[in-house]
Design brief:
binds iron/sulfur cluster; about 425 residues; about 20% strand; Alpha-Beta Plaits; about 25% helix; Elongation Factor Tu (Ef-tu), domain 3; Rossmann fold; alpha/beta; binds flavin-adenine dinucleotide; 6-stranded antiparallel beta sheet
């Protein structure tokens, strides 16, 4: 067989549907996914078809494959210019490139579906470095409720009306954060705590293309921000500087922080079918978050609080580790203090309080090791981590250290946390 005749399954991302959420890039074990300000793309040289990125993708845009002669594989540079996916090559095109008909007939694309691609998977080589994402579950807890996903896509968003927008941290802080309530009226938009939506900001980007949608975690419980209403809430930080501290004007976060009651938003989703809470009695929930990562934790806590009020549900332990730079910047600080101590065990950490040593959520977790160990051992305990990407590794490493110091086998425990849907990571 000549070099030209080698046929590969090229893994591609559909730029029309992708909401640029970064999930795939963060889970790919071999660094095959990259992005620029326009597109997320897969490097055919690096992708080993392991499929790790497919289940977590909220939109399904990652599940695209093309039979390509290896020498004709689409380059990263080419993919970064796409507005939509190219059509699959025809059999005649493939043959014209020296691929024989036997190879074409055997191609997974011809025999169909993800199963075929998964069977061609190559396992990632063992890594010496600690890889936190290797322990994140892609399945929900066994007692999670059924989540509806992708009811509205980027090509057909639904509309919601803004019914509230107010600040949830102190004025004058750099990390100004808003609580925004939106109502779907009579349009179906069923959600669960831990799911997210995406908002399509109005206007066009520097290339004159419509802005892509940005994803936001739902901060309210399943029966509405106001119980019994078809509404939900979001916790949005106004982005005024990028991750390197350079001044920017984040497109969607600024739009959302400035919306007025009565404005109409374009919404897609809901997204997410694994970062969901357990629903069985006595199940414990450990929530670890920073900043707006508190949004899903607020939804879960509020749902448990409403259940507790009915007197008909026996919840387990709720434990919250919540970090911010200062108390003034921490969203929902006041309301959290009002929750009864026998309902939720709250641990705040602040990393930039003047005159105080820096404290991060993982420091508080280590201090509370004696309480975390029984929870790690208990199959009815579920762990949720949400916030900026930079926190993830430190938090999972803290769980690792707490477990190991208590004589638990982390590799076994970490694998069961993943397989049993007990450790959920959502960082961005
Ligand atoms: C699964 C998921 C859930 C999310 N949930 C929330 C949520 O509940 N609340 C929330 O506020 N955001 C959330 N985000 C982030 C959100 O989707 C947007 O990325 C964020 O609001 C910035 O969008 P923008 O349009 O304002 O900024 P852009 O115009 O897209 O970006 C402007 C610049 O700011 C940088 N930047 C982007 N986000 C941040 C950030 N958070 N901090 C510092 N710099 C940043 C970008 O790299 C870019 O350089 C979530 C993201 C994901 C993937
Ligand atoms: S299939 Fe595996 S190697 Fe390829 S991009 Fe997805 S996670 Fe990375
Ligand atoms: S929508 Fe899917 S393909 Fe796009 S960045 Fe998110 S995970 Fe990746």
């Amino acid at each position: 067989m000549t070099t030209e005749a080698v046929l590969i399954q090229q893994h591609l991302i559909d730029p029309e549907i992708c909401i640029r959420c970064n999930t795939c890039e963060s889970v790919c074990p071999v660094g095959a996914i990259t992005h620029d300000s326009r597109n997320y793309v897969v490097d055919a040289e690096k992708c080993n078809l392991c499929m790790a990125c497919v289940p977590p993708c909220p939109t399904g845009s990652i599940d695209n494959w093309r039979s390509m002669p290896k020498v004709k594989a689409y380059s990263i540079e080419e993919q970064l210019t796409w507005d939509d996916l190219p059509a699959p090559l025809s059999e005649a095109d493939l043959q014209a490139n020296g691929v024989n008909s036997e190879a074409i007939a055997q191609a997974p694309e011809a025999s169909g579906g993800s199963e075929a691609k998964a069977s061609a998977a190559v396992s990632a080589s063992g890594e010496a470095v600690f890889n936190s994402s290797a322990y994140g579950a892609t399945l929900p807890p066994w007692s999670a409720a059924h989540a509806y996903t992708n009811l509205y896509g980027p090509k057909k968003p639904t509309q919601a009306t803004v019914v509230g927008n107010f600040k949830v941290n102190e004025a004058g802080t750099t990390n100004e954060t808003h609580h925004i309530v939106i109502d779907f009226g009579s349009m179906p938009f069923p959600v669960l705590e831990g799911q997210s939506v995406a908002i399509v900001p109005p206007g066009v980007d520097a290339l004159g293309k419509p802005h892509h949608a940005r994803q936001y975690s739902i901060a309210s419980p399943r029966n509405g921000e106001r119980a019994g209403y078809n509404n939900l809430s979001l916790t949005v930080k106004r982005v005024t500087e990028d991750h390197d501290g350079k001044p920017v004007q984040g497109v969607c976060s600024n739009y959302l922080c400035d919306v007025k009651v009565g404005d109409t938003l374009q919404v897609i989703g809901p997204f997410g079918s694994s970062f969901l809470m357990p629903n069985h009695p006595k199940s414990n929930i450990v929530m670890i978050c920073t900043g707006t990562g508190s949004a899903p934790m607020r939804g879960m806590t509020e749902w448990r609080r409403r259940l507790r009020q009915t007197g008909k549900f026996e919840g387990g332990k709720l434990m919250l580790f919540f970090g911010a730079r200062t108390q003034e910047e921490l969203p929902y600080f006041g309301p959290l203090l009002k929750l009864p101590k026998d309902f939720i065990d709250i641990n705040f950490t602040f990393s930039r309080t003047p005159g105080q040593p820096k404290r991060y959520v993982q420091d508080a977790m280590r201090e509370r090791a004696a309480d975390l160990v029984p929870l790690l051992k208990d199959p009815h305990s579920f762990f949720y981590v949400c916030g900026l990407k930079s926190m993830e590794e430190g938090v999972v490493l803290a769980l690792h250290d707490v477990a190991t110091q208590a004589g638990l086998n982390w590799e076994q425990l970490g694998q069961s946390l993943k397989q049993e849907g007990r450790l959920h990571l959502e960082t961005y």
